[in-house]
UniProtKB/TrEMBL annotation:
Coiled-coil stretches noted in the UniProt entry, renumbered to this chain: none
Transmembrane regions listed in the UniProt entry: none
The keyword Nucleotide-binding is assigned to this record: yes
Residue ranges of domain Aminoacyl-tRNA synthetase class II (D/K/N) in the record: 320-572
Enzyme class: ligase
Protein name: asparagine--tRNA ligase
Enzyme Commission number, as recorded: 6.1.1.22
Pfam families: tRNA-synt_2
Domain of life: Eukaryota
Gene Ontology molecular functions: asparagine-tRNA ligase activity; ATP binding
Amino acid sequence: MTSEQAPVESPLPLSKYSKRVALDSIAGRPDGGAGLIGRRVVVGGWVKSSREFKLPAPPAPPSAGVPKDISCVEVLQTKLPFFRSIIKVFVGEQRIRDKIDSVILPKPPQPSISILQIGDGSCVSSLQVVVDSALAPPAHVMQTGTCILVEGAFQKPSLPERKEKHTIELKADKLLHLGTVDPDRYPLSKKRLPLELLRDSAHFRPRTTTVASVTRIRNGLTQAAFAFFRENGFLHVQAPVTTVTDASGGARENLLLVAAALPDGVKVETIRASIKEKSKKVEELRRSDSNKEALAAAVQDLKKTTELAELVEGEQRRTRTYLSASGRLHLESHASALGNVCSFGPRFRACAPESRKVLAEMWMVEIEVAFSELEDAMQCAVDFLKFVCRWIMQSSAEDLKFMAKRVDKHVVDRLQLIAEGPFEKITYTEAVKVLKQAKNERIVEWGAPLSEEHEAVLAEEVYKKPVVVYNHPKELKPFNARCSDDGETCAAFDVIVPKVGTVIRGSQSEERLNMLSGRIKELGLEKKQYEWYLDLRRHGTVKCSGFSFAFDTFVLYATGLNDVRDATPFPRSIGQPNN
């Protein structure tokens, strides 16, 4: 090894638990990595694209092809017919031919280098790695998706046409790991695939540049949410995923029965009456001279009916369990003791599988604040959105730039709209009036929920900014939203943003025991399932307010994507196959 190739201690930080250099520490340098030339590192990643370049074959030595232990006579014997005919009498032609053929070596393959573009998921940029065919055959390292871990030294790009795209490249001299790919079964290629095709390969699609950027932006939004909580004195509480309480007061479609559902209208009394009739029939058959087959059939029928009655009675005794549509009821119990609390986790809703903005499983950020009212919760929601937008613009600038180029050029502008611009606040009644004046295609009447089209008109056409709509009809909101003095509306609000619609739904909880009990009775809810929640009103009641932030929906807003299935790592849809 020459002095120019001598190892130089790398100034780059090593990944603590994998002893390699992450690519973002290389691509993020102001000089593009030029100052690293000559330094040795270990890098690893997956091949995104590749090219092979043939090198000139080394010149053959003068004596190539003629073994040293073959005499001139032997060579002449093989070349000249005249000498062959004379010498073969004394020596034998076949023996000499076999000797020559056995020692002449096959022609070596032409040497080449593999130019690999590898990514490790730490950043948008890839690193160019040069692998000599003497180190690894091109067929083993060039396939898209191949995993390699190599050691080598940085150098200037070896090919002139690559210098415009890359400041440096890594010349590999040690291959530490090689994970090959079956090209007949691997779904990805170096060509860009539509996002809808990648949904069938959710376990591989993070290796694509677009999905990797989306994942890093999701991570940035998660960090932003927890940073907001930390800076504002919130305690994180793990809310349950399953519960016996229907948090929304109307999400009965989320019911998850412990046993299989029975047909509607089946009552134990009806089945018991049938058992009496069948028992009489069995007794009559036993007293009569009927054949044994008829008696056996009647006994078997009675047995099945009895088993059905036991099953129905068991189902009526069972506790119904819900997949939680909201964790705010449980958060309220902790807010009533700890003040400001938050949670982050999956929530469930029954939805059509073709919905672009809603999945059966959606991740939600939820907060609950004690001693607060509706205005406090609305201000907290606005502050939260501004905070996460500012955070993501700073922490994920490279990924946002890529998404603006690849997916939607208005991504950063929309984030800026929330981060620095004002919010419009209007009541539900005012929103209905504005929509009627806007003469949109779908007419809205007071008392009806605002559709996606209505939300788009408000945020994108009328106000052209985020809109907070509050004081909704009580029938449209959860049972525990505080009823207003007019008896028709409640202290609830939605935050609507351009492109994706509602991203936050919040409310002030009903702190008055009589009013809350009345709503439970009015909606026909099973009161005993809410006794624990009513206890919060019986003992030390406090005004609480909070909201739920649709995390997956906001990822659409931050990335410019149009389908939530492309913004979620493993989307869950009813009636659809899931990984």
